[in-house]
Design a protein that fits this description.
By secondary structure, the chain is α/β, with parallel strands linked by helices. The protein folds into two domains: 118 residues, 3-Layer(aba) Sandwich (Rossmann fold); 93 residues, Regulator of K+ conductance, C-terminal domain (Alpha-Beta Plaits), CATH 3.30.70. Helix content is 36%, strand content 29%. It has nine helices and eleven strands. The protein has a six-stranded parallel beta sheet, sandwiched between helices.
């Protein structure tokens, strides 16, 4: 596998950390995975570039890992909030350019933001929202909240769009949403042209406001 230049370190190999680390590796990036549990390290030994057992709450351990040499560090420790915060703080103080940290709740997230974490993620909360949207709407295939005001949604194209071009539907003006891709069987049309016409079994990927996406769902 050809490796890309940017290097990532993922600290904490629970479900979230494992998913992030393996996905980045499959995308061709150099990935260091770190956990203090020897069993997890052994299970993960052949799935990323390097796997190391270490206590990342210890500054000397982080220095030994060469953590400051990584472009992005993802702190995915979930069970121990204190270890999560202490690790994120030390990684940030060591000068890592971009630090992402997992938070279990809003208070935890605020603390991470206070210590300078560049991006706070809430995997359990976000997954709950995605599942809820999938349950209440048969048309919604996937849902990711980018911010309280903005989401990205994968949805079956409403019947009312069939046969019309992107320009004719005027979704941006009517619903404050942008169509960023259209899935048509095995074909993926990224940044479709205004003249692209919607088909009967198209799946569309849209970015937009919560209100706009709800209006789109109601069209089905």
């Amino acid at each position: 596998m050809k490796k890309k230049n940017k290097q990532y370190a993922v600290i904490g190999l629970g479900r979230f950390g494992t998913s992030v680390a393996t996905t980045l590796y499959e995308m061709g990036y150099e990935v260091l995975a770190v956990d203090n549990d020897e069993n997890r390290i052994q299970e993960f030994s052949d799935q990323v570039t390097h796997v190391i057992q270490a206590d990342t709450t210890d500054e000397e351990s982080l220095i030994a890992l060469g953590i400051r040499n990584f472009d992005v560090v993802i702190v995915a420790i979930g069970e121990n909030v204190q270890a999560n915060i202490l690790t994120a703080l030390q990684v940030k103080e060591m000068g890592v350019p971009y630090v992402v940290a997992k938070a279990s709740n809003s208070l935890h997230g605020k603390l991470l933001q206070k210590i300078g974490v560049d991006r706070v993620v809430y995997p359990e909360r976000d997954m709950g929202k995605r599942v809820a949207h999938n349950l209440v709407s048969n048309s919604v295939l996937d849902y990711i909240e980018l911010s309280p005001e903005l989401s990205i949604v994968e949805v079956s194209a409403p019947n009312k769009l069939y046969g019309k071009t992107l320009m004719e539907t005027d979704l941006r003006a009517k619903y404050e949403i942008n169509v960023v891709a259209i899935k048509r069987g095995d074909e993926l049309i990224v940044s479709p042209l205004p003249t692209e016409r919607f088909g009967a079994e198209d799946i569309i990927v849209v970015v937009g406001s919560r209100n706009g996406i709800e209006k789109l769902e109601e069209m089905v």
